[in-house]
Write a structure and sequence with these properties.
Blueprint (H helix, E strand, L loop, with lengths): L1 H26 L3 H11 L3 H18 L2 H14 L4 H14 L2 H14 L4 H14 L2 H14 L4 H20 L8
Helix pairs in contact: 1-2, 3-4, 3-5, 4-5, 5-6, 5-7, 6-7, 7-8, 8-9
Length: about 180
């Protein structure tokens, strides 16, 4: 985490140096050079979204869930209807044990793109982890309608079916053992 913070500080310092160079060119009347420098400084909205998304994804992979959430939220401030960001945010919430927020994020991703396989699978996994087998089963089946040979959906449907089979065979039948 310290390395990421240092990289961000270096990035900000670099941008400040570029700004000062651009200002110098501008004050000297060299407007074309100033424009080129200022162009390098300014990130487009898409660049900003991608920056926060990629940084958040990297933090998520490294297990820094709280900082990842902050990066995803920054990206959502710029573009609130971006399914990938909602999906990653849901994954971070799920990793943090914030189940309801994870469910909400995955559902928001699906409201943007109902066939978004990663969000369908992630939502199904949250329900599976909660022990909500019927809801998980429905979502894994939905994933197979989008991607018929999806290995994650197939594997989890088999796991749910095997769990249901074990539960059914261990239930008392109601008959007396006499």
């Amino acid at each position: 985490m310290a390395q990421i913070q240092l990289a961000l500080e270096i990035e900000q310092g670099f941008r400040k140096d570029l700004y000062e160079h651009g200002l110098k060119y501008h004050n000297e009347g060299n407007h074309s050079s100033a424009a080129l420098v200022f162009e390098q400084i300014s990130l487009t909205e898409v660049d900003k979204i991608q920056f926060h998304l990629q940084l958040g994804a990297d933090l998520l992979r490294r297990g820094f869930y709280g900082p990842a959430v902050l990066e995803f939220e920054k990206a959502l401030e710029i573009q609130p209807h971006y399914a990938d960001i909602r999906n990653y945010l849901g994954a971070a919430y799920h990793a943090m044990g914030r189940t309801q927020e994870a469910i909400q994020s995955f559902r928001q991703a699906l409201s943007v793109n109902p066939r978004y396989i990663d969000a369908i699978l992630n939502l199904a996994i949250v329900y599976r982890d909660m022990g909500e087998r019927d809801e998980a089963n429905t979502l894994f089946e939905q994933a197979l309608r989008v991607e018929p040979q999806n290995p994650i959906a197939l594997q989890n449907l088999k796991r749910i079916a095997d769990t249901n089979l074990v539960v059914a065979t261990t239930q008392p039948s109601g008959k007396s053992a006499a």
